[in-house]
# Entry
Amino acid sequence: MPETTHTAETGPPRGFRSAELGWPELDRIPHPQRRVPLLGDVLGVNRRTPIQDSMRFARELGPIFRRRAFGKEFVFVWGAPLAADLADESRFAKHVGLGVANLRPLAGDGLFTAYNHEPNWQLAHDVLAPGFSREAMEGYHGMMLAVAERLTGHWDREAAAGRTVDVPGDMTKLTLETIARTGFGHDFGSFERDRPHPFVSAMVGTLTYAQRLNSVPAPLAPLMLRAAARRNAADMAHLNRTVDDLVAARRRSGGGEGDLLDRMLETAHPQTGERLSAENVRKQVITFLVAGHETTSGALSFALYYLARHPEIAARARAEVDRVWGDTERPGYDRIAKLRYVRRVLDESLRLWPTAPAFAREALQDTLLVGDHPMRRGAWALVLTPMLHRDPEVWGEDAERFDPDRFDAGAVRARPPHTFKPFGTGARACIGRQFALHEATLVLGLLLRRYDLRPDPAYRLSVTERLTVMPQGLRLGLDQRPAAARGTARSTTTNQQTDDSATRHDPASVPRCPVHRPTD
# Structure
């Protein structure tokens, strides 16, 4: 992890700071009982599942707790009032720490990994935000459909052969091709391969290595992770070569069709006239290719797991698709937002398993968290999102139960702000949020209309972690629905009246900032 350096008085210290440096009353915050000298809270934990271990500690210790590992102390927060206070942009900002900082050798000052003081973050954000406007999103829709049809073609063949499908693997292929095609005009040919594309293998390797760095003492990492470090260097070199080749091909072609890569290469900041440097373009492309598909593939995989396990919910969602889309083979852009119940299924999946399962916030000045816990400037805490999304004070005593109706319009209005955070918070929230939600809702609608999903009765959900989370080993059987069974419900015109009256205040129907909402 990066060491702490001190900045000018205008900003907090940068880099990793152990909690005792920033929390004057750290002893008031509970920690696991069986703490081992030097090693810390390592008994009963698995270095491959730090998020799930932290969730277990959260249930034992309450809404704010701490963990110690190899002499470094970390504060975790998941209680809704604490998380809401940390969302205050006047007092807190994004903290780049833990595994995210370990990705900086690859992603540098890209949008996800940049420190707040680095100017390229704001420059890139301002240049690229129009790439997620409604007009831009409508332009991506046709390519999203084309990639989804490659997935359904593959699933049709597997279903005809009586084989189950590898859900996480196929969702990864889908989302990689979608962001590559829409953002960068590139085709990885993922569905024509029997094995994951080497880009995916290298990406998984770098994410896994970034997480492993947190599981060993920093002075011993060069020794203990020597072989892993060599593999990571090779993985990063492969990712860099892939992106360099992609950018070089675009420069040779003289430009694309106004996609994200064109914006990176050709667009100047509207006020300053600045442009992204060649090095930063590489970092941003890597950031979008990795973050733009890894989290969405996980969200789709979890949603399909829950739909297969809850056939009554799948039937309700499928009925909505048939009603809203009718017999249209290729639904238009505007019809995706009308799948309000399908969107609730997606949101409920992201509630239980937000695929980016934590985000860190640091104090911009000396302050009191919820008026009770003093924090010095630069002190930070990690918001444990899966536990925030399970806070019984917000979500009820049945918070572990999968129930998409938690996201109907009335329930959303009744909840406090800052309680649903699958895309982070504030100015540094995910810039591609609306892209991911549109893509995922479209794909779920297409799959529900085409297939009945059959779960393996012996499968128990196993979650693998590599900074993001993903269902592991999830396979589903498919029964293709007859074409005549699709779109036989009432006309979309009749049902549009019903949809509008029933969901007039549904957040999905309200125009939003293309980047993030003020409170979620």
User: Anything to note?
Assistant: The chain has 20 helices and twelve strands. The longest strand covers residues 64-69. Residues 148 and 443 are 6 Å apart (CA to CA).
